[in-house]
Amino acid sequence: SVPTGVLPLCHRPPEWYRAPRQPPSLLLTPCRAFSNKKIMVELDESSGVATMTFKSPPVNSLSLDFLTEFCISLEKLENNRACRGVIITSAIPKIFSSGLDITEMCGKSTEHYAEFWRTVQETWLKLYSSNMVTLAAVNGSSPAGGCLLALSCDYRIMVENPKFSIGLNETQLGIVAPFWFKDTFVNVVGHRIAERSLQLGSLHPAPEALKLGIVDELVPEEKLQEKTRAVMAQWLALPDHARQLTKAMMRKTVLDRFIAHREEDIQNFISFTSKESIQKSLRMYMEMLKKKKS
Amino acid sequence: SVPTGVLPLCHRPPEWYRAPRQPPSLLLTPCRAFSNKKIMVELDESSGVATMTFKSPPVNSLSLDFLTEFCISLEKLENNRACRGVIITSAIPKIFSSGLDITEMCGKSTEHYAEFWRTVQETWLKLYSSNMVTLAAVNGSSPAGGCLLALSCDYRIMVENPKFSIGLNETQLGIVAPFWFKDTFVNVVGHRIAERSLQLGSLHPAPEALKLGIVDELVPEEKLQEKTRAVMAQWLALPDHARQLTKAMMRKTVLDRFIAHREEDIQNFISFTSKESIQKSLRMYMEMLKKKKS
Amino acid sequence: SVPTGVLPLCHRPPEWYRAPRQPPSLLLTPCRAFSNKKIMVELDESSGVATMTFKSPPVNSLSLDFLTEFCISLEKLENNRACRGVIITSAIPKIFSSGLDITEMCGKSTEHYAEFWRTVQETWLKLYSSNMVTLAAVNGSSPAGGCLLALSCDYRIMVENPKFSIGLNETQLGIVAPFWFKDTFVNVVGHRIAERSLQLGSLHPAPEALKLGIVDELVPEEKLQEKTRAVMAQWLALPDHARQLTKAMMRKTVLDRFIAHREEDIQNFISFTSKESIQKSLRMYMEMLKKKKS
Question: Where are the transmembrane segments (chains A, B, C) (predicted)?
């Protein structure tokens, strides 16, 4: 059977997170907007739709803290019966998310690499197996891990600006997307497009991303919110139970493969990341980013 | 190895059906058109092409009787060496088939659910693994089980009327397409289109169905017969043996998975269908259909 | 783990081939163009790109000798650190490769069939799992085994002449593409297009091949070389190690399945090919080819 976000986090969650599941009556208690450091979460109880807005300058990079907050927020919504759908989007202009925070992978301890990677896994697992309707409103560039977040949703709407690009560009950094990034990508675009795009580490401008099927539609930036709500309403028109079982059936093969190789994947990440050649690659890439900025 | 329609039916077939396979010479004896209650079967011995025309008013719904007749007719053609290809089509205006007969799933005994589902399975198994060239001439709307019949053929031609739609819309009824409906669909349209279409329970108008790859081509209604014959001739130009082995190879994974989980799938169907919440969903849907009609 | 061209050949290679891997310094020694009987191999050391040009009149058919030479040449390049990419193309006008040499499959001993098939397998395995960037410059028609060579590369550029066609047309000859031809094809074009094309044994003119995704782009014949070099440069811009691991990950499932069924596949080939009905089919096809020529 398909896991649906009930697996334990690898680091200490706040007290409310560990609280036993509340009875239905309490869960229907209005849940006001709450904002932690990096993600603003708002729930519109009339529609049952939550919005998670990334607001972690400068580029919404997926640090350990960001991912931990993402997991906790998503879990909280998952357990809230008043919430049936989630939109993920960004408050940072031109950037949806820049992907995994490379500083978490550079010059740190083995224990840190393990904790970081476990949280990356957990984030994907919770999002990809969510019972809620998940929708990515991609309002900026979205490389690597940022692209993975979008690919893990049920539907992707991107702003039609050709300066915004999206893709799994890991090879450009001298690293390799893990197998479950690949599986998620193949489920969206098919084997051939994934093989070519992953080998070349391509970042596809929005119009090309649409053509390849990486995103489902493009809209002008000013129409993004309206369009996102309309699409969400369309998905919420279906009975939750039938839709959830169908989603679980579609994603079962990829989720099962991940679960079976989860610890192995952490060990692979640690040994790969610990290599001096990889550390050098990542340092060079960070230097390049710094120079680009200045 | 791939089964090719030799598995026993779950209910009593007529005497001729249980007769031992006839020697080749007898099999070449002309087989005149025969019509049972719900499906007209005609075999053109000069071309080796049979046509199975659904004629079960009002909407060719796939009842236990209809499916039993379908299985028996297909098996008979499969064993007739004079027959190399089958066209399935409808004699009911605007409807190809409305899919599984919901009355077979409502307020019946566990034994009835088991018999019904076994026959649904058998129908798909015989059609999907047929050694003959199978062609769907979709001359009307084709939701759910009707769509499955079309998807199980080698090729699908649909009338270009945008009022005719096709799709696996089970979620709209609060139920879930079984895994082998899903596998058949994914083999035709790929994972992404299947995931989205199944979750939304979409019924696609003919032009959209073509774009998504659910059908292979559209023709004006008056050209349907001519086009169907031309396509069939193209497929029959290939040596049977090589074509059959190739087809079996292509469909082996999906057929093997089905065979391995066949009994489990029946148990799932029974326990799901027996739930009061599902019974309620189905009754509401039938009420809605009745109101629509009047 | 994925094999990468280190598996032994099934027949005796020349002395240099069995030599132990040379130390890096020696491997960087310039490797001049060398030409055996059927394939011209040139290595441009400044770019690290080798070109393997098929020059076996009349139609570059894949005989045991041709395939043996192909394996040896590819292995030599694979072990040469100065070589990072390979282009395969043809020196014969209008023909890329006509596919497997049918005379190797007609009226020969069981031992010969086994040796021939093992070499066909080895050729595909080496090419499909190559660590180098592999690029097919398809400058002529490319049926059956010729198509397989192109499909096994990382990228396919075809001359836009609609008289040139490409496809796995085995069923037209009364034979069946083996499962790993099919798997390679499905990875490129997806399940539906492969199912239809393989059953019909279609040879697709260049424009149709582009539309179906069998090739990645079309160019005028006079631009082929320039375009091929530009594409190769794009692929070589990626760090080898990350690109190689990504490629191995993408092709792992198909390679693993092949390895698991390799000997079984040889036995199948022998027993199928030894059948009198198949021998007759192949003789008839050869007669037809002879008549066509004269």
Answer: none
